[in-house]
Design goal:
Shape of chain B: flat
Helix content of chain B: over 70%
Strand order of the largest sheet of chain A: 6-7-8-3-9-10
Structural class of chain B: mainly alpha
Radius of gyration of chain B: 23 Å
Largest interface: B-C, 62 and 61 residues
CATH superfamily of chain B: MetI-like
Distance between the termini of chain A: 45 Å
Order of helices and strands of chain B: HHHHHHHHHHH
Structural class of chain A: alpha/beta
Radius of gyration of chain A: 19 Å
Number of helices of chain B: 11
Shape of chain A: globular
Largest sheet of chain A: 6 strands, mixed
Oligomer: heterotrimer
Strand content of chain B: under 5%
Number of strands of chain A: 10
Chains: A alpha/beta (277), B mainly alpha (260), C mainly alpha (257)
């Protein structure tokens, strides 16, 4: 049941593309509070190619969310730049949809699932009939055909996060940016959602950037893992995860290589921590 | 740099009020309108009546009544609130009457009390305390009712005396609810204070406003009205400062809880 | 479920209060002027609905309170949302809003009587002036209290303009706006009756003042009880509206948010 079928669309993404889908170049972010200034990110480079699944891991508080806000155009970096399909980002770009960690807050409690999903389309001025049809379609994609009329607070945490993912899909984004999307659901639901996202990536040919502090999750999902550490944070390693697709919660995680990747990343993070002290 | 920031902050808040006062001052400067005398005249009349006239003693009369009425309301409201808050059965029995009496618009009772008891200070104090007691009482009940059962269990298992239990556990725990009740009571108290003085008095700020209005001394009426408004503002700011310190532990511990 | 014991205890308390009232009135210590006999008050209460004068007073009080509340809401809600959404405007108006929300508006009555006379119009203006501030303050507060996640979401999904205002900002501020409206409902009745008591503008408050001058204390108490029922009814009606409008809100759903 946890097996993800690999579809043909993946082959197109396998080819090395000319322009990366999303790119951070020498990004630096400094927060100022009065006379105090704190540099959170410095000299940071990340490249995400079309169709790629990239996870960004690092210890809590390292600045993962800050990086993600930069990548999605919610925060202008103090120095350096973020590019989407070669274009410098100055405002949240149309190609990107963000799925927030706090699904209970990013879904609007006064709207049912259907209206929540259709809201970005309404913002674009799509007609009512069209946006509802689209919303129903994407809700079906995430397995929530029956929950369209339910309000977020009538749904379980996992279902709420599915609604949030559906909203991102309705937006027709080419790039899904996810901030610890499965951090507040139980383990079983988490595995289901992980496989759902893998499946959506295959089926729709989108690329996914996912921030997490969970190394297992990162290795399991990714084509590539970007490891952040230190303060100010920078990329200390980029690991190509050449585990076979489709991935499977049990089979993949019992592979010898899986353990190796995991050990390598964990070692790097612990090492950087030890050096800081 | 810090100093300039502070200055800019004050400027951002002050420019509009200052501009409006200047505008009022200039626009009314040559006014011959009966209803809108020059602001300069209002101010000078106000200053005159404060320094030489009766305004200062009137203000003292009003504020003493308010303070006394409020004090009675707080004592009665908190004591009754602790009793009602600790007993579900008592609460059930009186609740419908409580809900009704607090829905009576407080000013409706002013004619009755002052009409029957006369125009002195005491009936005003009664009017104010009768109006102010309900928000204090209801909030205290809510606060006491909502106390964590762990606190009661603690008192029981350590065999704290009733007195210690109420003074050191119940009251502080209910304080975050009691204080907003007192704030509401203060606002209502100021309204009832003014109403009671307009209804029937021979002293007080409301009386000053009413009398000057009846004598068509419009500058005095405006001066009195502005003075009452400024006093209302000042009282609510003072209360905010008091609240800030009284509930410091509450604010900081809940901020701590939010941080997890 | 009907709770027998609770009901009996309530009846007992009611009977006790009545008996106390009866005894106090008969002893005459508080004076008949202040405290009439309960029976006199109840017979007046039963007579009142048959008098045209009563209905006209009730209607005039309700009309000024309701109309004043509506005008205050129409001005206060949009103005508050605009002020709250613009940090510069918010800072420039903060002092003024603070000043007027704590201003005992009833003190303006003598000035307004000079300007407009003791009229329905004057009463209405008083009600609007008093009811405006809680609505305005809460609307400002609601507009400023947007979850950062919601703010990020609207930015990220390019939601702006009218859609953002009607679908996001307004419902987000609604719980606060309802709080403001609830406070203002009580205030508008308070101000209507207060103005009627103090000036000779017709309404419930005026009936109280007139009865008081006539020394008809049973009539005074009867009208005070009527005003209490008026306040209670409005309160209950408002709570019902609030439950309907905010059905999605955790406080209505009975959850601790």
């Amino acid at each position: 049941m946890n097996t993800v079928t690999k579809s043909l669309t993946r082959t197109a993404a396998d080819a090395t593309p000319a322009t990366p889908a999303l790119e951070a170049r020498e990004v630096e972010v400094t927060y100022r509070a009065g006379a105090f200034a704190k540099t959170v990110l410095k000299g940071l480079n990340v490249t995400v190619n079309p169709g790629e699944f990239v996870c960004i891991v690092g210890p809590s508080g390292v600045g993962k969310t800050t990086l993600l806000r930069c990548l999605s155009g919610l925060l202008r970096p103090t120095a350096g730049e973020v590019r989407v399909v070669g274009r410098t980002v100055v405002a949240p770009p149309e190609e990107i949809a963000v799925v927030f960690q706090d699904y209970s807050r990013s879904l609007l409690p006064w709207m049912n699932a259907l209206k929540n999903v259709a809201l970005p389309l309404k913002g674009r001025g799509v007609s009512k009939a069209k946006r509802e049809a689209k919303a129903r379609e994407v809700l079906a994609t995430v397995g929530l055909s029956d929950a369209a009329e339910k309000y977020p607070w009538q749904l379980s945490g996992g279902m709420q996060q599915r609604v949030a993912i559906a909203r991102a899909l309705a937006y027709d984004a080419r790039i899904l940016v996810m901030d610890e999307p499965f951090a507040s659901v139980d383990a079983q639901t988490r595995f289901e959602l992980e496989d759902l996202v893998l499946e959506l990536r295959d089926r729709l040919g989108i690329c996914v950037v996912l921030v997490t502090h969970d190394i297992d999750e990162a290795v399991y999902l990714s084509d590539r893992v970007v490891v952040l550490a230190n303060s100010p944070a920078s990329v200390i390693d980029t690991v190509e995860i050449d585990l076979p697709f489709p991935r499977d919660q049990i089979a993949t995680k019992s592979l010898h290589e899986f353990a190796e990747f995991r050990g390598r990343i964990l070692g790097e993070i612990l090492h950087s921590r030890a050096q800081e002290k | 740099m810090k100093l300039t920031n502070r200055f800019l902050g004050i400027l951002a808040e002050a420019w509009l009020p200052v501009a409006l006062i200047v505008l009022w001052w200039l626009a009314s400067a040559g006014s011959t309108s009966l209803y809108f005398p020059p602001l300069a005249e209002i101010v000078s009349v106000g200053v005159r009546d404060i320094t030489e006239g009766p305004l200062l003693s009137y203000a003292a009369f009003s504020l003493t009544n308010l303070a006394a009425g409020l004090a009675i309301a707080i004592v009665v409201g908190v004591v009754a609130g602790v009793i009602l808050g600790s007993s579900q059965r008592l609460r059930d029995a009186v609740n419908p009457y409580l809900q009704f009496i607090r829905s009576v618009p407080q000013v409706a009772l002013v004619p009755l009390i002052i009409g029957a008891l006369g125009i002195g200070a005491l009936p005003k104090i009664w009017s104010i305390s009768f109006a102010c007691v309900w928000p204090v009482l209801l909030n205290t009940i809510d606060g006491v009712k909502g106390i964590d059962t762990a606190l009661t269990d603690f008192s029981k298992s350590y065999r704290l005396s009733k007195r210690t239990h109420v003074l050191d556990m119940v009251l502080p725990a209910a304080l975050p609810q009691i204080v907003p009740g007192v704030r509401t009571a203060l606002a209502i108290g100021v309204i009832v204070m003014v109403v009671s003085e307009i209804y029937g008095a021979d002293s007080g700020l409301g009386y000053y406003i009413l009398q000057s209005g009846r004598n068509f001394a419009v500058a005095e009426t405006w001066a009195g009205t502005i003075l009452v408004g400024l006093l209302g503002y000042l009282l609510s700011r003072l209360f905010e400062i008091f609240e800030h310190f009284a509930l410091r532990w509450h604010r900081e511990s809940s901020a701590q809880a939010r941080r997890g | 479920m009907f709770d027998n014991r609770k009901f009996i205890s309530q009846v007992l308390v009611g009977a006790g209060l009545l008996a106390l009232w009866q005894l106090a009135a008969m002893s005459g210590t508080m004076g008949r002027d202040l405290l009439p006999l309960p029976l006199d008050v109840f017979s007046r209460l039963i007579e009142l609905p048959f008098e045209a004068r009563f209905w006209s007073a009730l209607q005039l009080t309700l009309a000024s309170a309701f109309l004043g509340l509506c005008i205050a809401a129409v001005i206060g809600i949009p103005l508050g949302l605009i002020i709250g959404a613009n940090p510069r405007v918010y800072r420039a108006t903060r002092f003024l809003v603070d000043l007027f929300r704590s201003w005992p508006i009833i003190a303006l009555m003598p000035v307004l009587v000079l300007l407009f006379g003791a009229s329905f119009k004057m009463k209405l203006i008083m009600v609007v002036l008093a009811a405006l501030w809680p609505i305005l303050v809460q609307s400002i507060y609601g507009a400023r209290r947007v979850e950062p996640t919601i703010e990020d979401m609207t930015l990220s999904y390019g939601i702006g303009g009218r859609v953002k205002f009607f679908e996001v900002a307004l419902p987000n501020a609604l719980p606060f706006i309802m709080t403001g409206l609830r406070i203002s409902t009580a205030l508008s009745v308070l101000l209507s009756i207060g103005v009627e008591v103090l000036s000779s503008v017709p309404g419930i408050g005026y009936e109280i003042a007139i009865a008081r001058i006539d020394g008809a204390s049973a009539e005074v108490i009867a009208y005070v009880i009527v005003s209490g029922f008026l306040g209670l009814t409005l309160n209950q009606a408002f709570a019902a509206i609030e439950r309907y409008v905010l059905a999605w809100h955790p406080s209505v759903r009975g959850e601790t948010a």
